[in-house]
Amino acid sequence: MRLLNDDTLLETYFRAIDLQLEREFIHLLREEIHRRKINISIIQGDRTISRP
After folding, report:
1. How far apart are CA 23 and CA 6, in angstroms?
2. How far is residue 38's CA from residue 50's CA, in Å, rounded to a whole number?
3. Whole-angstrom distance, CA of residue 32 vs CA of residue 25
4. CATH T-level topology, domain 6-50
5. Residue 13 class from Cβ within 10 Å (0-12 exposed, 13-18 middle, 19+ buried)?
6. Given 3-state DSSP classes, what are the helix, strand and coil percentages for the chain, each rounded to the nearest 5?
7. How many Cα atoms occupy the beta-carbon half-sphere of 2 within 13 Å?
8. Is the pTM above the cut of 0.70?
9. CA 28, 3, 45, 20 torsion-angle sign
10. Which UniProt keywords apply (predicted)?
11. 43 backbone dihedrals φ, ψ, rounded to 5°
12. How many other C-beta atoms are found inside a 10 Å radius of the C-beta of residue 32?
């Protein structure tokens, strides 16, 4: 996961959700997003990303 840049990580995360991939995979992506302190919100299909 550390080899992915932030944009690729987020793109992968949202794509995994859209494709309804395995929950464990999505969970791993979400953990890495939190580790990097990237805040994400999903509100009725709209995606908001904030970085410190």
Report:
1. 20
2. 6
3. 11
4. Helix Hairpins (1.10.287)
5. buried
6. 50, 20, 30
7. 1
8. yes
9. negative
10. Protein kinase inhibitor
11. -120, 105
12. 17
